# Entry
Amino acid sequence: MNDGATFTSSVSRLYSRRATIEKRGKKPGKSAMVVAVDSYLESPSGGTASDLYRAARKLSAHNEFFAANHTALSLQLLDTLAEHLLAVVASNKAAGVQDEASTE
# Structure
């Protein structure tokens, strides 16, 4: 399976969900889910992944579909976030090794 395609597909689903949330929003500001998605995409880290997971979990408590499927959806979200974080960490480590090699 192509990890890049999986991540791209997941991001596409997140943006689609974000658009749906914004359309349905009753408040003029951004929803917590939209803020969490934006934060994660701007700066993927354990903290922003945790915020995104908490926002998804809170959303599931207020929506029958999400509540009924919360476990499966949460595991899928965690898998996607873990895969992406591993890719980011590996990329950062590779860049760090290159920087060390170029300074020697």
